[in-house]
Design goal:
mainly alpha, two-stranded antiparallel sheet, 6 strands, about 60% helix, about 5% strand, binds NADPH dihydro-nicotinamide-adenine-dinucleotide phosphate
Amino acid sequence: MLLLPATMFHLLLVAHSGPARLLGPPPYLPGPEVLWSPQTLLLWLAWLGLQAALYLLPARKVAEGQELKDKSRLRYPINGFQALVLTALLVGLAVSAGLPLGALPEMLLPLAFAATLTAFIFSLLLYLKALVAPASALAPGGNSGNPIYDFFLGRELNPRIWSFDFKYFCELRPGLIGWVLINLALLMQEAELRGSPSLAMWLVNGFQLLYVGDALWHEEAVLTTMDITHDGFGFMLAFGDLAWVPFTYSLQAQFLLHHPQPLGLPMASVICLINAVGYYIFRGANSQKNTFRKNPSDPRVAGLETIPTATGRQLLVSGWWGMVRHPNYLGDLIMALAWSLPCGVSHLLPYFYVLYFTALLVHREARDEQQCLRKYGLAWREYCRRVPYRILPYVY
Ligand code: NDP
């Protein structure tokens, strides 16, 4: 809980420094006057308020989540992409009315501090709320009785006030949309500094906008992910969604603003191709599983080979899920590499995301395997026998 915010501030500081050394010391230690600013806190709260208001707008669809312990299903508004488009319109209007978006990069440290503070306070409130929640509402993992562990992992599975679902709201909106907004601000500041944005900056912005737009377009798919179906809502997700994602995932664009990198068209084309391959695998695998879980008789997946399990659910054993046991992670990692490559090879810093994300997905994959083994027993062992590799064919 202390190391994650410390790493985030280290990255923010180092990205601005001349040497930009990932493993070197930060250029200076920011004092409270650099981190704390009531105006920035207000700006951050206004951002959360705007996203909450957009969440409450009428949705094109209301989806049902997975079945809960008490056999009920929660309902979720599918309007994340609408929130992205409306935010873009509002920001566009504000910029044309004179809002200096290019000034945002100068505020990243106090904004990250405000986000961290909010994540701590929010997690504490969630922990207290979970103390009075019924046992059926608790997550399988965050109820060890150790308050620090449970505060970190999250006790309640789907904390809500009326129909406002805090975890679902935080998962894809303030952080992901904030991330592309920070990227855009960095692009605008680069244009102010150097006359026009660099090709590398365009690529990083384009790739990451595609990723965020895709996540929000397929928002319903988040309802079958581990975060929603298994993990409680505590510090891990609150800090991850609200602070870690926007402020560290924009690291490549932050790096490029202070360390411009030459990039020719042939290399840019190769990088675009790598991103496209990653996206193709990522989207293909996620959509295939999602379609199958929603309706196994859907013609797009009905012909795939499956393994029956004692729970009545089936496991795909051909198509993307017959290649490796987590093809979606493989696609995600290939894209992560494509986001770093525009930053050249002179520094390790822009590769932080690929390194961290590999560790995260390897750990996440192991957690998921344990859960699937518990859930599906022998059928899962049979799946592992038929599909021996976890993420990378013939390697891992
Ligand atoms: P997955 O979408 O991979 O879901 C895992 C679940 O899928 C399993 O628990 C199981 O659940 C089901 N499943 C596993 N194997 C099969 C099979 N063979 N056939 C059918 N169902 C199967 O998990 P995540 O939530 O980890 O990832 C979702 C996406 O989000 C991924 O693309 C990942 O890369 C991305 N992600 C991105 C992050 C980021 O920071 N950028 C962070 C985390 C994830 P069940 O059987 O109950 O349906």
